[in-house]
Amino acid sequence: MQIQAPGFATDTRGEVKLGAGASLRLDTKLDLGRPEWNVLVTAAGTPRPAQAPATSEVHGRIRVGGNIQYPKLIQRTDPVYPEPARAQGIEGSIVVSAVIGTIGNVVSAQVANRSAPPELAEAALEAVRTWQYEPALLNGEPVEVVTEITLNFRLR
């Protein structure tokens, strides 16, 4: 059995067997869905040969309710491509897991892909921590949400 609602993560409960005329009541709490953003950061330079893609581990906060309005990005500071990384031909994708607070500020941010180049990771975090959102609303009330932001650093 799967329980789904727009704006929420799907809850899978496994198999349910009911006989003819039987009824079932199931109370559940669904996790709030996770909004995601992708940003491309470019600079002039020659890229190094590609490396194996990094994996990320992101854990979300749980919220419940019915009427969801996702946060809206209203002010974004673009990351600055670090000069040492550009000079060395370092490229990469930085996945940032950020908590957007009830007033729309970034409460916390951390790099989710552990093998990210440190100089790119720091530039990504420095920028994302300044971003401002209209907060997420759950049943009309502001709530904290976790979002995933991918910042792609590419040389051209």
How would you describe this protein?
There is one protein chain. This protein is mostly beta strands. It has one domain: TonB (TolA/TonB C-terminal domain, 2-Layer Sandwich). Helices cover 11% and strands 34% of the residues. The strands form 4 sheets. It has a 4-stranded mixed sheet, with helices on one face. The chain has a 3-stranded antiparallel sheet with strand order 4-9-10, with no helix packed on it. The longest helix has 11 residues, at 118-128. The protein is elongated. The termini are far apart. The model is unreliable at 54-60 (pLDDT under 50).
CATH superfamily: TonB
Classified by CATH, the class is Alpha Beta
Percent of residues in helices comes to 10-25%
Query: SSE string, helix = H, strand = E?
Result: EEEEEHEEHEEEE
Distance between the termini: 48 Å
Total helix count? 2
Mean pLDDT: 82
Strand content: 25-35%
Any idea what the CATH architecture is? 2-Layer Sandwich
State the secondary-structure class. mainly beta
Spans with pLDDT under 50 lasting ≥5 residues? 54-60
Keywords:
TolA/TonB C-terminal domain, 2 helices, mainly beta, three-stranded antiparallel β-sheet, single chain, 11 strands
